[in-house]
Design goal:
elongated, mainly alpha
Length: 159
């Protein structure tokens, strides 16, 4: 028998961390085929900038995850959502963890001096926007209706 069970989760294309890792991998593969450095300065400056940038997504994910846990929610998009989190960092962005992924790829690009990784940020943004965020927004709008729609009108998707 076929089951037409409707799952209580958004129909995203893939786990967002996997999308970020795939874009990073693609950037490294492209660089292996044709190196494309972009940072002309000394390696020490590049590495210092990258280290600082690596700390930013760690802090964002920590703060965002703490806020989700406080509301008994989970960042895994494959788990049902029982509440809309609108406090803490979620007052500034509806997708802070995805912003952290983009910054992580930027930090990786700078650390590796790899322009292909800079291009992969654009690819990741498109994948997140059309393969994850829009599906999540449809799911949340369908599940929470006007409550989510009001949140969506008052808080930016990205920054």
């Amino acid at each position: 028998m076929f089951s037409l069970e409707v799952k209580d989760r958004p129909a995203i294309i893939a786990p967002p961390p996997l999308l970020a890792l795939a874009c990073i991998a693609a950037g490294f593969v492209a660089a292996r085929l044709k190196p494309l450095p972009f940072f002309p300065g000394p390696a020490s400056i590049r590495v210092a900038i990258a280290v600082v940038l690596f700390l930013v997504p760690v802090a964002i994910v920590f703060v965002a995850r703490r806020e989700l846990v406080k509301h008994k929610e989970h960042p895994n998009p494959y788990k049902p959502t029982s509440a809309i989190v609108t406090s803490g960092i979620y007052r500034l962005s509806r997708n802070p963890i995805y912003i952290a992924f983009l910054i992580f790829v930027l930090a990786t690009a700078i650390a590796a001096n790899n322009a292909w990784l800079l291009l992969s940020i654009v690819v990741l943004l498109v994948l997140l926007q059309f393969g994850v965020v829009r599906a999540e927004e449809r799911y949340l709008s369908g599940k929470f209706g006007v409550e989510y729609d009001a949140y969506r009108r008052t808080v930016r998707r990205w920054l």
